[in-house]
Inverse folding.
């Protein structure tokens, strides 16, 4: 190394001057590029489950859904027990306003009614029995028609079947002296239709006896 002497008598080496010169001339360089992203860290452990929240309010009712498809036809039910097709009873209440005065030359009151049990088979092969009751005097006794009653020693009235056809019938009520007078209370009538087979199966039955007729009907009802 070369030595020099300064005016103050100091001795310096050239190498030292070069170092000082170099240090005094350093300048900051440009910012370098961003480095590559580091790898992701591992996931942390799951936190504890929070407490259950309060129940929310009920939601609005939804719209009505469309009608579902029709279901399959169900199985056929068991056959019911056979009904009584041999002896039928139909009861009628005869009010005072039911009667119609027919006048001369008949001089009787008439009343008509329907009865589905009066069939052509009953008319041709069986029979129809009619029974009369006056609730004003008895609610248990039934009289076969024609029924004749005498309220006085000289006056009688008769109630009887007047006519009959399929599905309907008529009755008549008359006084022996032709008086046009009807009751002021209701009366009761029973029409009993008996099939030809029931009539033939009971040859000893008195069909004008209400109790015997009801016994035959009960026999068929209980079969």
């Amino acid at each position: 190394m070369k030595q020099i002497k300064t005016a103050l008598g100091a001795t310096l080496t050239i190498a030292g001057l070069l170092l000082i010169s170099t240090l005094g001339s350093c300048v900051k360089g440009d910012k370098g590029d961003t480095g590559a992203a580091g790898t992701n860290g591992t996931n942390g452990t799951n936190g504890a489950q929070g407490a259950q929240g309060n129940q929310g309010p009920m939601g609005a009712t939804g719209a009505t859904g469309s009608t579902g498809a029709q279901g399959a036809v169900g199985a056929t039910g068991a056959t019911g027990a056979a009904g009584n097709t041999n002896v039928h009873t139909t009861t009628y209440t005869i009010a005072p306003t039911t009667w119609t005065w027919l006048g001369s030359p008949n001089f009787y009151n008439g009343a008509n009614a329907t009865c589905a049990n009066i069939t052509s088979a009953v008319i041709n092969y069986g029979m129809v029995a009619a029974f009369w009751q006056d609730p004003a005097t008895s609610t248990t006794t039934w009289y076969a028609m024609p029924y004749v009653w005498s309220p006085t020693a000289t006056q009688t009235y008769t109630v009887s079947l007047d006519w009959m056809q399929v599905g309907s019938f008529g009755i008549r009520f008359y006084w022996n002296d032709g008086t046009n007078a009807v009751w002021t209370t209701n009366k009761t009538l029973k029409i009993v239709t008996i099939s030809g087979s029931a009539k033939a199966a009971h040859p000893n039955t008195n069909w004008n006896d209400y109790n015997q007729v009801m016994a035959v009907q009960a026999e068929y009802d209980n079969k």
